[in-house]
Structures are given as structure tokens and as C-alpha cells.
């Protein structure tokens, strides 16, 4: 590959990223022809059916649910309907009285018109016309009153059907708000099933028996999908249960991890230093997230997890005591003293979890290396050419900086596979890369797109997209200096600097899963925003509701209806003029494994999000259009635009060994 000529853009002052632990080897020079050169793309396994892929895209287009972004929710106040009905009825009654008063006057004018006076004849004719018009208007108002009354009855019946199972106390409790997702999913399932049955032309019990079947994947309606394909209807799943349970509000315990002492609340709670947007009590999800991070870090720091929170231990104790004899929890300790029930359960639970959690312990890196992939070292880093990187059939990724949700997802999926293959030891190469695309228009205006991929290893690995990255990304304070950001975020800053970014330049960010967390973290970081103009953030399958991002940035969170990852932050995504959430379904019975799909893991894969994003862009929803207009306005595109791509790979060196089971 030919190296790009020296750029004439002189970078402005940049923060010093070299603070003792970071080394940068080489520059992330332009890899455009290597990454996105011409060549036939293979089709991803499981996505070879053009009909099924097309049906999944069409299903996404017709079923997207958009919240926020200025769209608002349609709310019907039946009290207002009744008031309007009464007002229209009163107007009709008043017109009736006018008509009654006009009738004798019309008759008298007609009698006087018999005298031959032309003016009296015209007056009589006018009175007759007015009376006839009043009769028509009164009749029309009567129909309107009847329709308003019927509409009020239908809305009240629907509201009763959906909410009638709840008492007033339940509706006014904090739990009601957290159950909104479950209620919405029930309504979505009912609507999707109705559409599928209509498409399949099921008009009799015999049709139903022959065209509808039940499986682990859900309800399959033969011919109920777009274009005559089969429709897959999935009801509330693990993601909806998590959304409901993890959003349950808690009173933040004084001895909770991170509480007091000026430290951040666990997991980015309302008082967390990452700029959480929530207010009020901490949720169960926020608490558990912080407890998990502190526990995993404790394996490294102490050789054992930190003491469990008293409130949590008491809850576990209560559950166990209810099923077991109480005396079993009062046994001698090694020192001879007796332990109370809570302390006994706490010790046993730590011992039980140790072997499961210790391999995932978080070990801060002693030294990190961010390497710019260049034409000279591309082969050594297993850079994969376009002919070896599959995409779903029908998904196009030309390599230009994306200005649509569909293009953003395609580039994100492509970035996932830029570094792949097997290393010298025969093992898979970990994809710990960050991609920056620089677009320069014909007017010399420049903008930068940061593409952040998701988690590669669910343990503390040599790469930066691992479980440590999740813990760091979810708890990074918004006030952190750029040199103290999580690894993947610092790598993105380094790639931007290699690409020649200057203070004040435009940046758009996108990420999947952990990459979405990092994208939201950069957009919420004060130092990053002071340097760069962050115009838009697009995330896929990421828990980003707890990040406070200013309203000058357009934020769109795309979530698959069956993905169990987005609810894990324990807070709902904010709905605002600048923040929106798009929930999408991809009825694709052949691609995901049924059991994985029920668990919400298959729905988390980026392949499905690329299909869903195609449907989102095709839906022409006003909120989606507004977000894409921000992308198009921020990023130069079209004829005359020059695109450069920069890739950084991050690895940890001199990593501290994990604590062996039983140590400490």
C-alpha cells in the first residue's frame, strides 16, 4: 500500500498523553485503500439469504419505537375529551335555540313576501337558507359529539385493559415507573402479532392451526413477515425483566461502595463523578454495578473481595434463613468466636463466588502501548483486507465517513473485523482497536469520526476491550483529565491527534456495547468537550443512560428489543430534544440461535444491529432524520470529499499476575 503524502494540516496544541505509562509507536497513517479498497466481500455466515435479510430490514423499518428527540409520547386525557364533548354539545344546543327563534321569523317574512315586496322576498329566502345551514351544522355537531364520546370510551377501555391490574397505590409507587418497559414490550408484542396474523391472511381457526407454531424462539407465523417470509414474534424477555428489576430505586446506604469519603457512587449513580443524569435515590442496577466493580478490583488490591455491604448481606441472609434452620448460621469461627447470621453468610458467599469471579479481577495496567497501524506494520498486526471481512448480504459499507444510522452501523461492524485472524501462536488475535476517520471536503473543512468497538474478552486480557475496560468505562469521572481516561478512550484521543485534529475541530462518535460506553464517556468528559466540538453520538447496544451529555450534542441510542445489555446500567435513557432512543426488532428466524436469543446474547451481536440500522434509516422517522441531518451537517461527504482512516491498537505490557485461588 502506498503511504499518503505529508499532510499540510498542522496540529494545534494537544494534551500531553505521555505521562509515564503510555508509549506511542509510529503514526496511524492513512489506511484507506487497505481497509476499504475494491474487492468482493464474503457474506457473513447465517446471513446468506437475501430474502431473510431483506425481511429483517423491512421488519426493523416498520417496527421501530422512538423515544425522546423531541418526538414525545402520545398521551390521551379522557377528561379533556369529555370536556370537549360537553362544550360541543352546548354549542349545538345554543345553535338549536337560535334555530328555534329563527323559525317563526322566517315564517313571518314569507307571509309578508306575499305582498310583492322584493326585499321581503330576499329576506325570507336568506332566512330559509340560514335555517337550513343551522340544521346541517347541528347535525354535524351531533355526529362529532357521538364520535368524541366513543373515542373516550375506547381510550378508557384500553387504559383499563393495560393498567386495570394495578391498584392506585401500585401506580403511584416508584416501581410503576420501572415497569414501563415491560408494559411497552407487552403492547409491542400484541401489535406485532396482530400485524403478522393480518399479513398471513389468517381468517379461521384452521388457518391459525396450520400457520402458527410455538418454539423456543417465540411465536412463528408462516407468511406473516415482510415479503411473505415467516414472522417471529418474541414476547417480554430477559432484557425487559432486567430493565424492570434493575431500575428499582434504592436508598443509597451510607456504607455502600463509593459512598461517603468524597468518592464516586458505584457505577455512575446520581451522585457519581461520571456526570450521571439521574436524580433521587440510587437504583438497584447502579448499586450492583458499583459493588461488582469494587469487588473485582478488590481481588487485585487485597487478594480477596472487599467486605460486602451490610444491607446486601442482610438481604441475602433473610432469603437463606427463610429456607434453612436459623441455628445453622451460628457456628464457631476459626478464632473460636461466634458469628452472627449476616457475617456468616457474607463469609460463605465470598468463598463461593471467589473461584467464579477471581479470573475476572481487574488489574490496572503497569504500562500500555498504543500502536498506530501503518502500511509498514499492517501485516504484523493482522490487518484484514476487505475481501476477508464479511457483512450481511445487502449491507453496503464503502468506507466513507458515515452520515446515516445505517452507514454508521456498517462502518462500526467493519471496524470490528479490521484486525483479525490468528497470531504466530495460532490463537485468535484480540481486536483492541480504535478507528478514526478524517473527512476533508472540497472547501477544506475537516471533521473526524471516532469508531469504538465492543468487548472482546470477558476477563482481564492483554487488550483494552476487556472486562477491565467495562469497569473503567462505567465509572470514569466526567472531570477526569484526558491522560486519566480509560484505556480505549485515551487510545481514541491518541488516534485523533495522530490524524491531525486541532482544538475546535468537529467530532462525531459511535460505538457498540463497551464502545458505546466509551463514546458516551468521551462526549460527557469536560476536558474532551473543551478541546473539540462534539456534534453527535450514536451508540448500539450500550448502557449509556447514566452519562450526562450536554444538549449541544445530538445523542441517539439504538437498542435491539431483545438485547439484555442496554438495561444493565439500571437507569432509563433520558428523553430530551437532543437525546433519543430507538428500539428496533429484526425478525430473522434463521440467523440467531434460539436459546441465545431468548437470553438476549444473540440480539447483542453487531450483525443484527447493522440490519436494524438499515431499517431505521429507511423508516424516515422525523427524530431519526433530525439526528442524521446533524451527522450530515457535521461531516463533509459527497463528491470531492477526501477520507483518511487511522487505526490504533492497544495492548498492556508488564501486566501484574492474577492472584491465584486461595492466596491472601
Plain-language structure description:
- The protein has 664 residues and is α/β, with parallel strands linked by helices.
- The chain has four domains: 22-73 and 366-653, no CATH class; 78-165; 184-241, no CATH class; 253-360, no CATH class.
- 42% of the residues lie in helices and 13% in strands.
- The chain has helices at 32-36, 50-63, 78-113, 118-163, 168-171, 174-178, 180-199, 205-211, 238-246, 284-302, 310-321, 341-357, 405-416, 467-475, 487-498, 514-524, 526-531, 594-599, 606-618, 622-634; strands spanning 22-25, 65-68, 212-215, 218-221, 231-233, 249-250, 282-283, 367-372, 433-440, 446-452, 506-512, 533-540, 554-560, 579-584, 642-653.
- A ten-stranded mixed sheet has the order 1-8-15-9-10-11-12-13-14-2, sandwiched between helices. Strands 3-4-5 form a three-stranded antiparallel sheet. Strands 6-7 form a two-stranded antiparallel ribbon.
- A hairpin with a 2-residue loop joins β3 and β4 (218-221).
- α2 crosses α19, α3 packs antiparallel against α4 (118-163) and α11 crosses α12 (341-357).
- The radius of gyration is 31 Å and the shape is elongated.
- It comes from Kocuria tytonicola.
Rg on CA atoms, Å: 31 Å
What structural class do helix, strand and pairing data support?
A: alpha/beta
Low-confidence stretches: 1-15, 252-273, 303-336, 592-598, 655-664
Number of domains: 4
Order of strands side by side in the largest beta sheet? 1-8-15-9-10-11-12-13-14-2
User: What global shape is seen?
Assistant: elongated
Give a count of the beta strands, DSSP E runs of length 2 or more.
15
Q: What average pLDDT do the residues reach? A: 75
Proportion of residues in helical segments = 40-55%
Strand fraction equals 5-15%
Summed up, the helix count is 20
- Give the biggest beta sheet: 10 strands, mixed
Report how far apart the termini are. 53 Å
InterPro entries: AB_hydrolase_fold (IPR029058)
Region (Disordered): 251-283
Protein name: Fungal lipase-like domain-containing protein
Amino acid at each position: 500500500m502506498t503511504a499518503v503524502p505529508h499532510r499540510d494540516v498542522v496540529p494545534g496544541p494537544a494534551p500531553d498523553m505521555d505521562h509515564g505509562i503510555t508509549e506511542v509507536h509510529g503514526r496511524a497513517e492513512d489506511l484507506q485503500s487497505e481497509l476499504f479498497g475494491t474487492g468482493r466481500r464474503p457474506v457473513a455466515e447465517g446471513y446468506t439469504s437475501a430474502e431473510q435479510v431483506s425481511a429483517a430490514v423491512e421488519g426493523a423499518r416498520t417496527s421501530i419505537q422512538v423515544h425522546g428527540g423531541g418526538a414525545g409520547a402520545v398521551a390521551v386525557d379522557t377528561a379533556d375529551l369529555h370536556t370537549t364533548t360537553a362544550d360541543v354539545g352546548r354549542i349545538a344546543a345554543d345553535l338549536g335555540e337560535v334555530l328555534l327563534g329563527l323559525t317563526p321569523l322566517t315564517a313571518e317574512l314569507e307571509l309578508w313576501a306575499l305582498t310583492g315586496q322584493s326585499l321581503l322576498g330576499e329576506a325570507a329566502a336568506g332566512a330559509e337558507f340560514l335555517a337550513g345551514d343551522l340544521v346541517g351544522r347541528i347535525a354535524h355537531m351531533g355526529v362529532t359529539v357521538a364520535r368524541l364520546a366513543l373515542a373516550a370510551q375506547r381510550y378508557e377501555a384500553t387504559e383499563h385493559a393495560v393498567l386495570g391490574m394495578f391498584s392506585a397505590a401500585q401506580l403511584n409507587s416508584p416501581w410503576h415507573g420501572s415497569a414501563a418497559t415491560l408494559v411497552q414490550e407487552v403492547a409491542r408484542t400484541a401489535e406485532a402479532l396482530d400485524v403478522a396474523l393480518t399479513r398471513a391472511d389468517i381468517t379461521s381457526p384452521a388457518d391459525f392451526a396450520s400457520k402458527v407454531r410455538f418454539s423456543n424462539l417465540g411465536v412463528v407465523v408462516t407468511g406473516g413477515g415482510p415479503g411473505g417470509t415467516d414472522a417471529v414474534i418474541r414476547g417480554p424477555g430477559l432484557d425487559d425483566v432486567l430493565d424492570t428489576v434493575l431500575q428499582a430505586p434504592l436508598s443509597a446506604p451510607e456504607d455502600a461502595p463509593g459512598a461517603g469519603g468524597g468518592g464516586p457512587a458505584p457505577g455512575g449513580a446520581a451522585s457519581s463523578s461520571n456526570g450521571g443524569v439521574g436524580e433521587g435515590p440510587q437504583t438497584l442496577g447502579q448499586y450492583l454495578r458499583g459493588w461488582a466493580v469494587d469487588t473485582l478490583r478488590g481481588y487485585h488490591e487485597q487478594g480477596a473481595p472487599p467486605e460486602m455491604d451490610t444491607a446486601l448481606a442482610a438481604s441475602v441472609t433473610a432469603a437463606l434463613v427463610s429456607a434453612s434452620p436459623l441455628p445453622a448460621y451460628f457456628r464457631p469461627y476459626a478464632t473460636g468466636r461466634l458469628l452472627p447470621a449476616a457475617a456468616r453468610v457474607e463469609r460463605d458467599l465470598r468463598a463461593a463466588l471467589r473461584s467464579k469471579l477471581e479470573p475476572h479481577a481487574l488489574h490496572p495496567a503497569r504500562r500500555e502501548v498504543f500502536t498506530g497501524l501503518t502500511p509498514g506494520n499492517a501485516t504484523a498486526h493482522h490487518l484484514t483486507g476487505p475481501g476477508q471481512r464479511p457483512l450481511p448480504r445487502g449491507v453496503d459499507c464503502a468506507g466513507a465517513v458515515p452520515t446515516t444510522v445505517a452507514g454508521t452501523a456498517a462502518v462500526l461492524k467493519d471496524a470490528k473485523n479490521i484486525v483479525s485472524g490468528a497470531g504466530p501462536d495460532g490463537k485468535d488475535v484480540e481486536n483492541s482497536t480504535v478507528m478514526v476517520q478524517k473527512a476533508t471536503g472540497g472547501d477544506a473543512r475537516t471533521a473526524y469520526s471516532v469508531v469504538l468497538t465492543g468487548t472482546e474478552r470477558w476477563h482481564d486480557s492483554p487488550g483494552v476491550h476487556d472486562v477491565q475496560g467495562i469497569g473503567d468505562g462505567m465509572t470514569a469521572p466526567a472531570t477526569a483529565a484526558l491522560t486519566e481516561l480509560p484505556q480505549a478512550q485515551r487510545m481514541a484521543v491518541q488516534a485523533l491527534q495522530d490524524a491531525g485534529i486541532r482544538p475546535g475541530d468537529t467530532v462525531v462518535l459511535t460505538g457498540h456495547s463497551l464502545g458505546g460506553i466509551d463514546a458516551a464517556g468521551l462526549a460527557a468528559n469536560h476536558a474532551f468537550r473543551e478541546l473539540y466540538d462534539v456534534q453527535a453520538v450514536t451508540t448500539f447496544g450500550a448502557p449509556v443512560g447514566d452519562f450526562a451529555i450536554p444538549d449541544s450534542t445530538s445523542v441517539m441510542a439504538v437498542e435491539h428489543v431483545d438485547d439484555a445489555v442496554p438495561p444493565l446500567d439500571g437507569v432509563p435513557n433520558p428523553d430530551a430534544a437532543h437525546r433519543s432512543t430507538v428500539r428496533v426488532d429484526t425478525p430473522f428466524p434463521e440467523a440467531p440461535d434460539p436459546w441465545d436469543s431468548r437470553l438476549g446474547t444473540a440480539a447483542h451481536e453487531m450483525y443484527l444491529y447493522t440490519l436494524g440500522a438499515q431499517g431505521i434509516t429507511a423508516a424516515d422517522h422525523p427524530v431519526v432524520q433530525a439526528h442524521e441531518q446533524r451527522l450530515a451537517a457535521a461531516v463533509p461527504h459527497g463528491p470531492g470529499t477526501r477520507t483518511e482512516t487511522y487505526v490504533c491498537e492497544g495492548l498492556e505490557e508488564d501486566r501484574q499476575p492474577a492472584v491465584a485461588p486461595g492466596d491472601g
